[in-house]
Amino acid sequence: MGGKVRVITGALVAISVVTAVAFATRFGKDPSLAPSPLIGQAVPDLYLPGLRADDDLTLKSMLGKIVVVNFYASWCIQCRNEHADLVSTAEAYAARNVVFVQIAYQDDPDDTVAFLDELGWSEHTRYVTDPASRAAIAFGLRGVPETFFIAEDGTVVAAIRGESDAILLSGTIESILAGDQPGFQKGCEFQES
Questions:
Q1: How do residues 26-72 score in pLDDT, each as one tens digit?
Q2: In angstroms, rounded to a whole number, what is the distance separating the alpha carbons of residues 120 and 113?
Q3: At what angle do helices 77-93 and 109-119 cross, to 10 degrees?
């Protein structure tokens, strides 16, 4: 009887592993190659009010620089997890014509400021708000965090859906600096909005 239970348990474990792998790989399709409708499109031209003085901006006003746009919220655990990597990557690339813009998504400005006071502000990042979620709609945001990369000509060339890290951010930026268009990248799973 004990041997039969072990065989059944082993079979169930094997079936579970095969099923998990099939779903994780989308039945043979690499999720990092999933299309994003913004790739190859011009950056949306929106006015975004800053959290700090002199941080108000339009993304089109940043033509001539590589711009990393990150949507985040104080209530998002994955945003909290990736924040230190965003700050360190912004610092590392500041001298290489790369600017970071973090857009607070559906967040109270006081909560956003408290989040940044706790986890750290970067002097090389512009922190803005998104009234009426216009930027989120224009970018087709599916949840937070999400990060978009805009080339110097104002074209969206890459996106990370979900939590990013310094390696993924740096690799994508290096690819853009080399003249490539990296496309869609998948970080950890994102939270639905």
A1: 333 333 333 467 788 899 889 999 998 888 999 899 999 999 999 99
A2: 10
A3: 60
Beta-carbon count within 10 A of 92 CB: 15
Looking at residue 15, its amino acid is: I
d(CA 158, CA 181): 7
Structure tokens at 138: 């224009």
140 within 8 A of 159, measured Cβ to Cβ: no
- Model confidence, pTM: 0.78
Q: What is the 3-state secondary structure (H, E, C) of the chain?
A: CHHHHHHHHHHHHHHHHHHHHHHHCCCCCCHHHCCCCCCCCECCCCEECECCCCCCEEHHHHCCCEEEEEEECCCCHHHHHHHHHHHHHHHHHHHHCEEEEEEECCCCHHHHHHHHHHHCCCCCEEEEECHHHHHHHHHCCCEECEEEEECCCCEEEEEEECCCCHHHHHHHHHHHHCCCCCEEEECCCCEEC
CA distance 102 to 16: 39
Tokens 């190859």, located at residue:
40
d(CA 166, CA 175) in angstroms, rounded, equals 14
Tokens linked to 124: 């090389």
13: number of Cβ within 10 Å: 10
